Amino acid sequence: MILKHCAFYLLTPFFLASCAKLQAAQASAPAVVAVPSVSAALVIPANALRLEAEDAVLSGNTVLTKRPGFSGKGYVGSFEKDGAKIVWALPQAKAGLYDVQIHYSAPFGTKGYDLLVNGAKLSGTFPATGEKFAAHSAGKVEIKDGANTLEIDRGWGYYDIDALDLVPAAAPKPLAAVPETLADPQASPEARALLHRLISSYGRQTLSGQYEPKDSAYVKTVTGQTPAIYGGDLIEYSPSRVAHGSKPSGTTEAIIAEAKAGRIITLSWHWNAPTGLIDAMLPPGKDGKPVDARWYKGFNSTATTFDFSKALDNPASPEHALLLRDIDTIAGELQKLSDAHVPVLWRPLHEAARGWFWWGAKGPEPYKKLWRLMFERLTVTHHLHNLIWVDCSGMDPAWYPGDAVVDVVGIDEYPADVADPLSSHWEDLKTRFDGKKLLALTEFGGVPDVDKMRRYGVQWSYFVSWTGDVGPHKMTADALKRIYGSTAVGNR
Ligand code: CA
């Protein structure tokens, strides 16, 4: 979370085609019709229904033919204008789950898009393609009997859509067994027991989790259940915050008390940059709003001049020493948890690939180098063996620190539709990590609809909701009760 909504950190001074062709096809056949291959470059799966973008109803877009490699009569682009979208109508369909493949081009880099099925939004990300077309698995969608609409909205814009294929989804395969070994070869019995617990429920139940005690209390009041996982943050222990008056005293002790009350602990660290804090309001950026770069925003890349990449390349520099000083400070808090036999789902340096935190502002290589430095410093120098290492850098494989230093792969998501099953992300991660690492929803804006996710074959090990209006308060009381009361959710 980039913390812009996060009140508690502010405590310290923070389709329609009325596509006759399609209607004719569907009047005489079931919803899904076999379409002959129209391009040697693009392979259309058997029984797929291909919807060409140029046959959709276009808003703010045009049909293009300049770039070779498209199917049909062209492609549609470039989703530059606000509100730009394409809409297909399926006048007659058969209910079921379908896999979606989008044929697209993203010449200017990775781009977020929104796919809407009957108005329900599913967000995903197109990897960069250069000047070529590529196929992107957008995960599974639910189609109802009769009329349906599919729509692709602008999202981040500046991409082109060639076509969309709907393929009846096969039943999801069971998850492959994850090895009961941790990256730290000397992992403590408590850490190994926690991994065992997570592996035992993986594919059967998703464990619930919640940041902030007051939000856990709200969940308890509404649902009668206590989230299995307690989420905390070591932010205020950052030396550059303490130097400005932060008083974190008691935070670690409160976390230990939650563990003793039977909860699993996950910790993040909004690491305030050790030096180079701008500590000022800056003139408006691209969005026209002033940039808050005061000291307590020092975890944001916009609030510090600290170049950690340079520091990492110069081990004798004062800046490198400051990196170690800060890690050592946090090690002192993690040591208290170790002494109390509390294992931790440790997720430092989160959301790195998004670039908004300083540890993600220099690209993937420095980030991975910093991750490895922290891993070594905590496990080897400080003998901290109570940590289960959770990487939440993002979806881009270039940012993954490596199997040898990661135990759980997580994603942080704030989908536009809180009921988004995140199927595209799940399918991508499952392809990469099934049978290797546990997959988790390490931060979520709202409370995820675990039952809906399971219909899509999405089976996170656990979820942890963020706080307030981007946490449980985003949900209706009925939805919160239904999710926390589900047999697919494991509570404390
Ligand atoms: Ca096309």
Any overview of this molecule?
The protein is of the alpha/beta class. The protein folds into 2 domains: 3-168, Jelly Rolls, CATH 2.60.120.260; 189-490, Glycosidases (TIM Barrel), CATH 3.20.20. The protein is built from 11 helices and 23 strands. The strands form 6 sheets. The chain has an 8-stranded parallel beta sheet with strand order 13-14-15-18-19-20-21-22. It has a 5-stranded antiparallel beta sheet with strand order 2-5-10-7-8. A hairpin with a 2-residue loop joins strand 7 and strand 8. The longest helix is centred in the last third of the chain and has 22 residues, at 318-339. Bound molecules: calcium ion. Residues 52-54, 70-72, 74-75, 162-163 line the site of calcium ion. Calcium ion is lined by residues 52-54, 70-72, 74-75, 162-163.
Task: Write a brief caption for the model.
Helices cover 24% and strands 25% of the residues. It has 492 residues and is of the alpha/beta class.
Q: Which architecture of the largest domain per CATH? A: Alpha-Beta Barrel
CATH topology of the largest domain: TIM Barrel
Q: What is the CATH superfamily label of the largest domain?
A: Glycosidases
Instruction: Tell me the number of helical segments per DSSP (H or I, 4 or more residues long).
Output: 11
Number of domains: 2
The distinct ligands, each listed once, are:
calcium ion
Q: What is the count of β-strands? A: 23
Q: Please give the alpha-carbon distance between the first and last residues.
A: 24 Å
Helix content: 10-25%
